[in-house]
Amino acid sequence: MTQLPQRRVDFGVERHLQIRQRRDEGFKGGQRVAAAVEHGLGEHIRAPVASGLGLACVWRYACGVHLPQLVIVTPALADANNGNWQTAHRWSHLLSGAYRVRLTAQWSDHDDALMIALHARRSAHSIVAWRERHPGRPLVLVLTGTDLYRDIASDADAHRSLELADRLVVLNALGARALPAHLQDKAHVVLQSCSARVAVGKSPNHLRALMVGHLRSEKDPQTYFEAARLLAHDANIHFDHIGAALDADLGQQAQALHAACPNYRWLGPLSHDATRRRIQRAHVLVHPSRMEGGAHVVIEAVRSGTPVLASHIDGNVGLLGARYSGYFAVGNAAELAAKLVDLHLHQGLLAQLAQQAQACSVQFDAESEARSLKSLLAPLI
Length: 381
Hints:
By secondary structure, the protein is an alpha/beta fold. The protein has helices spanning about 10-40, 50-65, 85-95, 125-135, 145-155, 155-165, 220-230, 250-260, 270-280, 295-300, 315-320, 335-345, 345-360, 365-375; strands at about 70-75, 100-105, 115-120, 140, 165-170, 185-190, 205-210, 235-240, 265-270, 285, 310, 325-330. The strands form 2 sheets. The protein has a 6-stranded parallel beta sheet, with helices on both faces. Strands 9-8-7-10-11-12 form a 6-stranded parallel beta sheet, with helices on both faces. The termini are far apart.
């Protein structure tokens, strides 16, 4: 094949000014396109630019102006680095091609077309304000574990949020059955997603367990603590723990165990990327929560090739399935410890658990989550 001569292209100042002029013309043309579409005149106008750059500007401007704007209300923003923030941040990206999306901790009087609120109790003020200001506009409420399995049964604000919402999103396949019967028809399942990571090889000489969860009672770190104590004599089973001490007493317990038990390490809060790397390198993720809406860390483990030992609660079974063999009874440290010993002594069991977890992985990809979200929102807006 004949090789064409290569030459260095130098646009120079004049060329840059030409590009800038075409870009500006594109935006001005886009404004005219948008105005014409607004008045039903789109078929009678022509964009005053022929270049690809100008046409792209017209297209971006005209489409962007007419995308519906939705607001995601999340009581936790980036500095919290928790599941609510991860969900809100991810959804803003998944929906950005179809909507203009903004995030806020509390809604004020903006002209949004639709609200997505995370957490029935903590977003209750924004939900009431939205419904009073926009009684005819759609409201979607995303239910957390504390919503489903605690607050809606006892908190008036949380229960009112359920009644005011047009749709209720549950983050595990069994979540709807925790709702009052008359509200279950509002429920829509959205399984969360995360990027996949390649499973890494792990030494058969020891077993490294990892718990990821801030220290608070709902996450039940005490069960993990007790399992570490029960296996303190076994130098081949290691317990790592990532999470901030949201409960001061639990933080003191973690510090004391870290000092007294050589096989337990409390690593404190880590960045999301550092946490994912540790999940990837662990033999097994331990998730002992007493209540969960749909733990993103379980999904991250599955998508990293790391099997999970989880408490037998709806929030976990609704992600991993009823036939998954890695469950233990809530609060049963002895059963958890026994399962860890079995996984270490019998590598075939660990491989089997990893295969079961891998079978769940496809339902947690971004395309599936985006389809679920868009099928939820499309009829509303």
